[in-house]
Each structure stands twice: as structure tokens, then as C-alpha cells.
């Protein structure tokens, strides 16, 4: 029994991840439902954007759901995570309520940040989300710093970031920093093959992102980012290592975004057939088939899907009915008192 | 009365806050090394507080600032040292886009109690990339405080206040002040955002910060010999900016000179005069600035001495501006 397990046993805490590790399909059913929740959320935001209810721009993560959900399955609720401007999935996987996130997208007073953050900059400290960052690579530093706290609080910190971020100073400085200080951080690269409109391979020397960790003496793995089970297994190993003072890990999760980079991007740069190839490997389809193959009944799976759909419908209805924040009622304060 | 050296004031403030609060951490480049940094400010802190709380880091300013942000957001109170203020350019994204914004953008879910200490200022023949003062780089960023003490007592009190503050604070230590000695502080902390009238007078207000305050005080002594009664205001912080204290002084003297070690265009002094004009034009008979040329800071002693404001250049400027026939209250 690890030191942590002993402590938890003393506190009477159920070792939450054990069932999952043993492959209990019901834990994966919950995770699948969360993936459906993210997919439904992104599609709803897409529709609301076209109706003019979501303002500015937004970056959708449909197609990448298995990564944040698989990683967050391996975390405890008090662990930390940071996300990107393509961060709706990061927030929902970490525990942000769909109502609060939808209202934030719509700029409403009931949003998780009261309408001050919008799509790209969501913060939800109650659920350990230290922030989503509009600057490529920002999440890497935030999670590294949270890792310094985590090291003292017996927690773990996770950074979600894209392939584009691996060419930022943030990536190289922070991986070295975390390795030198042996911080309990899991660096999760969502390699969706494109940095904005540019193919990853055209702007990334050395060919493989995961291998960059090797230069820092950091353990790394390449993971099928569309396979919930594969992501969870790799994340659980990395989280275990971090929790047992084994330092950081880099996971390169290979995945694909179904939409373009942002709302202004029809993604015409994709080669013919590429999207279809990836749609055939849709993480939701893979998870559904696996759950059925593992013995879950069709009705159970359908019920989970229906529940997720309804949750998003309700969240959007509530958001649309919520008031906009009134600047006179609650003026912003520059500083914390 | 015992005298406190500026660098000892900084070290004492750090030691007292490390002692007082377990969540305070101190890290940076060479800060834990035996000498205690390139300006020998922090020797002995690692021995006293351990390698978990005081430690050296890679030369990675962006990671340092980012790590401080993430740690501050999750329960720590990090103090980091960015060795020279000139290196602050490398930290900008994390401080400007992350640390300064979290409190407001998160709808006040949490704040970012971090401090970034740096050695700043020219006069040491360090050249164009080791002599700048980055106060104005950050003054225009809502959500971040900028402090620059002028005396050992203020250095200690402001740094202690900065470490206890729940917001990010950029803390500027002028290299030419490290060996200055002065009285011990009279209070535990000095509040951020409260200027001090450090010399009273009725004819002219000189406003400055950091080393400029010492130069202004010295100039005021000389000008007193001319029969000019100078009031000196130490802003202490550039953000929050205590406009009220300056307005109060100008209401009395009707003349203001702002002295800045930095360029006039985009400088804090220029901004201050704008705010004074907006709020107190009826009180102003004259307002001007002593600043540097609009070039990078030169290396050669003959060039650097000419470039920098000093007590002498302040005296010359006041005499030239007000002439000998100035009507004084004396």
C-alpha cells in the first residue's frame, strides 16, 4: 500500500481509481457520458455562435474528447489542471458545470466567470482549473507553477496544450524546470496535427513531439488520443509516477479536431479525405463500440447519451434565459482587497 | 540610532516574511548560492529556511514567472528574483496575461499573491541591457502593482507589504541604492499606493520615485540656498498611483517637476503630468519633466553620466526654468 493509500484508508476514503484500473466498464460509461457531454456542448456552441449568441470567436474541440476525459479520470477532484483557448472540454472534464460554462460562452452573469472571461479564458478554481489561456503555451507554465503547490499539498497538476505550443519557450523552459525540480506535473500534448492553419510537421523539427521530453530526461509516451482506454491508462501511469514523487511525464496524445481552428476557419487546408479518415476513428464511436463489446447493454449506453444531451439542452436554455452582467450593479475591482 | 543598509532591509523583509508564513517561497537565479545573488542581497536564506523554500532555478525567466503565477494561484506566496530588470521582457506573457488578469477575469474567484524583485537602474556602467528601469513597462497593466522604494526603511516596509498583498507586485530595487544606509522603519509595513511627502516646502513640488527621490532631496538642499522652498513627494508605487497626495502638494506649491530615470515619451512622469492637468489645471502655474534622452542607455562613463538625471541636473533645470526672479513663500 502506498503512503497515499494508507493515508486515505485512515481517512476512510474509497480508492476512487481502483475500479477504473480493474477495467470496470461502468466507470468508462461515466467517462463516455462526459465525452458525449463535451461533443454536445461544442455542437450547441457552434449553433449558438451562428445565431449570434456567442461573441467574438470560439475554438471547438469536437473530435478530441477522449484526451481530457481520459486524463481527468485518473485525477482526484482536488488535483489541478490548466487548459487552452480550445478549452471547453478541459473545463467540462475537470468538473465545471455545463450551465456555468454555457452561460460564460454567452457572456451572461451566471457564467462560471460572470461573463468576464468568455470562451478562451475560463477559470474554475473550485474544480482545480487554474485557467484556460488565450496565449499558446500559457497553460504549460500555469500547471508547472501549480505543480509547485501540488508538491507541497500531495496533489498532481496537469497541463493541456496543443502541438503548436511545443515550439514555444513555455514548453522548453517549463519541461526543464519541472524535471529539475521533480514537480508532480503531467504534460498532456493534444497533437491534432495542425497549429492554427499550418500542418504540425511543417513547423516542428525532429518529427516527434514526445521524444523532446527525452532530451530533458523526462518519461514520455505516444498515445492514441482517440481511444479513451489508451489515454486513461497512460495518464494513470503518469499520475501515479507524479504522486509517488517520480516527477513529471509528457504524453503526446494524437487526435484530430473536427472543426477548423476557430470560427473564421473553414479548414480548406486539409487534404481531401483526411477528415473522413478521422471521422471513421471518432473517439465517441470507438468508446461506444468498446463499451458494448465489454458487455454493457445498448439501453444503458443510450441512456447515458440521452442524459448528456438533455444536460446540454438544459444548460443552453438556462444560459439563454440568464441576464447579462450589469456594469453599474457590480463594477469591476482592479485589485483583490 | 541604528542604521539599516538597503540590501539588508530587503534581506530582513524576506527573512521575516519567510518566518511568518509557511506559504512564502523565494526562488530565482543564484539567489540561494552562497553569495546570495549578484548583488549579495540574499545570503543565508537557504541555510535558514531550507532548500524546499529557498532555491536556485534554471535561467528561464518565462518559466520563473509562470511558475510563480501557478503557485500563487494554488496557495503559495512566491517571491521570485529576476536578476536585472532588463530581463523582465522575457516574463511579460505570464505576468501581463496571466498574473495581472486572473483576479478580474475569474470574477474574483482567486488572486495571485506573487512578488517579482529585480535590480534596476543605470549608473553602474552595465550598458544598455543591464541598466533599464521597467516600472513604466508595467505601469499601464491593470491588476499589477509596481513599487520602487527610495530608502532602506521603505524597502523593508514596502517589500513586506508586497509579500502580504494578495495581488502581483513588481518590486524595483535601484542598484545605486543597495549600499545606502538610513533609519530603521517606524512601522511593520508601508502600504502600497500611498505616496509620502518626504520634504515639505511651499514653492515647488518635485515628484519622483526610487533613486530619483534621493536626488530630489539633495537638489532641494541646494535650492534652499537659492531661497527656493522645495517639497519632495515620493510616489513609492507607480501603480496604484497616489494622485491625491501629488494634487495636495501642487495645490500648495502651484509648480511641479517630475524626475524620471527613463525616456519622456511614454514615461510615468509624462502620464502624471497629464493626470495633474486633468484634475488640477487650476492649481498649476508650471509643470515640467527631467528625464533621459530618447535613446538606449550608453556604457561609457562620460556618456552615461550625461545621460542620467542627478541632483545637479535637477538643480540646473529648476534654475533654468524658474530663473532667479522666482517669487517664493520664504
What does the model show?
The complex is a heterodimer of chains A (337) and B (330). Chain A contains 14 helices and 8 strands. In chain A, the strands form 2 sheets. Chain A has a 6-stranded parallel beta sheet with strand order 2-1-3-4-8-7. In chain A, helix 3 (25-50) runs parallel beside helix 14 (298-321) and helix 4 packs across helix 11. Residues 1-8 and 11-21 of chain A have low confidence and may be disordered. Chain A has one domain: Rossmann fold (3-Layer(aba) Sandwich). With 337 residues, chain A is α/β, with parallel strands linked by helices. The termini of chain A are far apart. By secondary structure, chain B is of the alpha/beta class. Chain B folds into 2 domains: 3-183, Thiamin diphosphate (ThDP)-binding fold, Pyr/PP domains (Rossmann fold, 3-Layer(aba) Sandwich), CATH 3.40.50; 196-322, Rossmann fold (3-Layer(aba) Sandwich). Chain B contains 12 helices and 14 strands. Chain B has helices at 6-20, 45-49, 61-73, 92-99, 102-105, 135-139, 152-164, 211-225, 243-253, 268-280, 301-307, 311-322; strands at residues 3-5, 24-28, 54-56, 77-84, 115-120, 145-147, 169-174, 181-183, 196-199, 204-208, 230-234, 237-239, 255-263, 286-292. In chain B, strands 3-2-4-5-7-6-12 form a 7-stranded mixed beta sheet, with helices on both faces. In chain B, strands 9-11-10-13-14 form a 5-stranded mixed beta sheet, sandwiched between helices. A two-stranded antiparallel ribbon of chain B has the order 1-8. In chain B, helix 2 (45-49) links the parallel strand 2 (24-28) and strand 3. In chain B, helix 9 (243-253) packs across helix 10. Chain B is globular and about 60 Å long. At the A-B interface, strand 2, helix 7 and helix 8 of A face helix 3, helix 4 and helix 5 of B.
Amino acid at each position: 500500500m502506498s503512503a497515499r493509500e494508507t493515508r486515505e484508508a485512515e481517512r476512510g476514503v474509497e480508492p476512487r481509481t481502483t475500479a477504473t484500473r480493474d477495467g470496470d466498464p461502468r466507470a468508462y460509461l461515466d467517462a463516455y457520458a462526459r465525452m458525449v457531454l463535451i461533443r454536445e456542448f461544442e455542437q450547441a456552441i457552434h449553433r449558438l455562435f451562428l445565431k449570434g449568441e456567442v461573441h467574438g470567436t470560439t475554438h471547438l474541440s469536437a473530435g478530441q474528447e477522449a484526451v481530457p476525459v481520459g486524463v481527468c479520470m485518473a485525477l482526484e477532484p482536488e488535483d489541478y489542471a490548466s487548459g487552452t483557448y480550445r478549452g471547453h472540454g478541459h473545463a467540462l472534464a475537470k468538473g465545471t458545470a455545463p450551465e456555468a460554462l454555457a452561460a460564460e460562452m454567452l457572456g451572461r452573469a451566471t457564467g462560471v466567470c460572470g461573463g468576464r472571461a468568455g470562451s478562451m479564458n475560463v477559470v474554475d478554481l473550485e474544480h482545480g482549473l487554474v485557467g484556460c489561456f488565450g496565449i499558446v503555451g500559457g497553460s504549460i507554465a500555469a500547471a508547472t507553477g501549480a505543480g509547485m503547490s501540488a508538491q507541497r499539498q500531495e496533489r498532481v497538476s496537469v497541463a493541456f496544450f496543443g502541438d503548436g505550443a511545443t515550439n514555444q519557450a513555455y514548453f522548453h523552459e517549463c519541461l526543464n524546470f519541472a524535471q529539475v525540480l521533480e514537480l508532480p506535473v503531467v504534460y498532456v500534448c493534444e497533437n491534432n496535427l495542425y497549429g492554427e492553419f499550418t500542418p504540425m510537421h511543417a513547423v516542428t523539427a525532429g518529427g516527434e513531439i514526445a521524444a523532446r521530453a527525452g532530451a530533458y530526461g523526462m518519461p514520455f509516451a505516444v498515445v492514441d488520443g482517440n481511444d479513451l482506454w489508451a489515454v486513461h491508462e497512460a495518464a494513470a501511469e503518469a499520475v501515479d509516477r507524479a504522486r509517488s514523487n517520480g516527477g513529471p511525464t509528457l504524453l503526446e496524445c494524437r487526435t484530430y479536431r473536427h472543426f477548423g481552428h476557430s470560427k473564421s476557419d473553414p479548414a480548406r487546408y486539409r487534404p481531401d479525405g483526411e477528415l473522413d479518415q478521422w471521422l471513421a476513428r471518432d473517439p465517441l464511436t470507438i468508446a461506444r463500440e468498446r463499451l458494448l463489446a465489454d458487455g454493457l447493454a445498448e439501453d444503458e449506453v443510450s441512456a447515458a447519451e440521452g442524459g448528456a444531451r438533455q444536460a446540454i439542452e438544459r444548460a443552453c436554455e438556462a444560459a439563454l434565459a440568464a441576464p447579462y452582467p450589469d456594469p453599474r450593479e457590480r463594477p469591476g475591482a482592479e485589485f483583490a482587497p | 540610532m541604528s542604521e539599516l543598509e538597503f540590501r539588508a532591509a530587503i534581506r530582513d523583509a524576506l527573512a521575516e516574511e519567510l518566518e511568518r508564513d509557511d506559504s512564502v517561497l523565494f526562488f530565482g537565479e543564484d539567489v540561494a548560492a552562497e553569495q546570495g545573488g549578484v548583488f549579495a542581497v540574499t545570503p543565508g536564506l537557504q541555510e535558514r529556511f531550507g532548500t524546499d523554500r529557498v532555491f536556485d532555478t534554471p535561467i528561464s525567466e518565462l518559466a520563473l514567472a509562470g511558475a510563480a503565477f501557478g503557485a500563487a494561484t494554488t496557495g503559495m506566496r512566491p517571491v521570485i528574483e529576476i536578476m536585472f530588470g532588463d530581463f523582465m521582457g522575457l516574463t511579460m506573457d505570464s505576468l501581463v496575461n496571466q498574473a495581472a488578469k486572473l483576479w478580474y477575469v475569474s470574477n474574483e474567484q482567486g488572486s495571485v499573491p506573487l512578488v517579482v524583485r529585480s535590480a534596476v537602474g543605470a549608473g553602474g556602467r552595465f550598458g544598455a541591457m543591464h541598466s533599464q528601469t521597467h516600472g513604466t513597462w508595467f505601469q499601464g497593466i491593470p491588476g499589477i502593482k509596481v513599487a520602487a522604494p527610495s530608502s532602506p526603511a521603505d524597502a523593508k516596509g514596502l517589500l513586506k507589504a508586497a509579500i502580504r498583498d494578495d495581488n502581483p507586485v513588481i518590486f524595483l530595487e535601484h542598484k545605486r541604492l543597495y549600499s545606502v544606509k538610513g533609519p530603521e522603519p517606524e512601522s511593520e509595513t508601508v502600504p502600497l499606493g500611498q505616496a509620502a511627502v518626504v520634504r515639505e516646502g511651499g514653492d515647488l513640488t518635485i515628484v519622483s520615485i526610487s533613486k530619483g527621490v534621493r536626488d530630489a532631496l539633495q537638489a532641494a538642499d541646494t535650492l534652499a540656498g537659492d531661497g527656493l522652498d522645495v517639497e519632495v513627494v515620493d510616489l513609492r508605487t507607480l501603480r496604484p498611483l497616489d494622485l491625491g497626495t501629488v494634487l495636495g502638494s501642487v495645490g500648495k506649491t502651484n509648480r511641479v517637476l517630475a524626475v524620471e530615470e527613463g525616456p519622456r515619451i511614454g514615461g510615468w512622469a509624462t502620464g502624471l503630468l497629464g493626470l495633474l492637468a486633468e484634475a488640477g489645471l487650476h492649481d498649476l502655474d508650471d509643470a515640467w519633466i527631467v528625464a533621459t534622452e530618447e535613446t538606449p542607455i550608453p556604457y561609457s562613463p562620460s556618456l552615461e553620466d550625461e545621460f542620467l538625471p542627478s541632483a545637479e541636473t535637477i538643480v540646473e533645470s529648476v534654475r533654468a526654468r524658474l530663473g532667479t526672479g522666482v517669487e517664493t513663500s520664504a
